[in-house]
Amino acid sequence: MDITGRKLFVKALLEEGVDTIFAYPGGMVTDIVDELYRQDAIEVVLPRHEQALVHEAEGYARATGKPGICLVTSGPGATNTITAIADAHYDSIPLIIFTGQVPLDLIGNDAFQEVDIVGMTRSITKYGVTVRDRKDLGRIIKMAFTIATTGKPGPVLIDIPKNIQTQLGSPEYPSHVQIRGYKPNETVHIGQLKKAYKLLKQAKRPLILAGGGINIAGAQEKLTAFAEKANVPVVTTIMGKGTMEDGHPLYVGNCGMHGRYAANKAVSECDVLFSIGTRFNDRITGDLNEFAPKAQIVHIDIDTASISRNVVVDVPVVSDANIALDRLIEWAEYKNTEKWQARIAEWEKENPLQMRRDKGLSPQTIMEGINEVFPEGIVVTDVGQHQMWATQFIRLNRKKQMITSGGLGTMGFGFPAAIGAKIGAPEKDVVCITGDGGFQMNMQELATAMCQDTPITVCVLNNYYLGMVRQMQQLFYGKRYGITCLRRRKGCPAGCKGPNEACPPYEPDFVKLAESYGAHGIRVTEPDQVEDALRQAKTWTDAPTLIEFMIATEELVLPMVKGGNPMSEMILK
What we know:
By secondary structure, the chain is an alpha/beta fold. It is 36% helix and 16% strand. The radius of gyration is 25 Å and the shape is globular. The mean pLDDT is 96.
């Protein structure tokens, strides 16, 4: 018996094992929404904005390892998702975004809420298509799940016209599908990998650079095993943080624009840089002509297009991190790198990662409090100074994960992603670290957090400014704080050089805002209040808790390398 497209849609999700869909209603998806209402196996989450909806799906995907499923209507519903789709694209997060579309006979007629969402997102999706025939619906949905979750993961967008949702057709949903031209790499070129390992074996100052691809592949333990067996120190990108546990004797720390002094020095002085799962973006390399100037570079990545795109490498290897590391562990032999490790330790001693604690409440103190009170669980950050402090001072282990926006650097990501992570992993503690600017971009999701019973702890670091840009204005633009002060009003004088007694009050009052939604609110102004506030938040399991941490306006993220400069030119004080 034939069934409607909307019934096949729900059947497909059930057969794919989907348990959660993040959805916002609208005219062109009402039929699908009605069909979802008729079943109980899939939980339907109603966010308060479509951008936040996709960020929640990202957090869910990162916490569970399963694809995040989204449903929005046509027109503005679809266009509101674009920023978050781009975020998932750059960070290789598997998502399937279903958008409603006007009926086929109206496409191209400037119908109400008609947009070419497939064309708009073509450069930020692995695959996007408008379903133009009911008989293709099942096959296209199966393709979406296959493409989003295999090879280098990423977002897929399926645009479903309203008439396709109501048309009758076959009830069959395929168990597998052949996709012409899509063949994700599932092997490794042994000859190339042997060349790569030979370089490492001969090196006197070898260094492993671990990127986010290792976390995506779930190859953290294999990386650690390889590094230990070969006795080679490891640095990470921001997205690679967590690939090796903090505190491991071979782990140096993050490198890059705000990386540790010792990590950046190690990259500059190593003779072989053995990189796995990184794109070598500008935040890691700085001046390309001065990046790892003394090293031969190995690049292992699942994405052929990423290799030698930014940094021309000596030995390219196209491979999933798991497959490559399995072989490397087999071949690895212990190297005597004690002198090299001692040199790295000297650099760490020369300029340890440490913030001043004489300016009141220090971001480092806040991160150390989170480490103490939340030794396990998921830490989600937004984007800005607080993100960098979190990547510097939050300690990760096999039971503690960090989720952040790396490639796109999307303000407003953190809070909804934390909600999605808690929905996906309700048994885990989830802490969101955000700034007063980024939090305001999606703070309406407090309603979603309340309705979904997600008692996350939201740490808002409030310095009254859009801190990362303010830091650049302080260091490089003569303290000309253009449109970064969040207290500034029309009556403020021109040419303000920073906060003073005449500054107007800050809006909103975050504690009252949280309480207005039914959540808990705490304000922390002194260092000795940090752990008590966090412990109190951990005990409140009936609702989210927002803790506003009042930090100094002039706090800086250091070290820092000015954009485009060599990573050896670090601002330390």
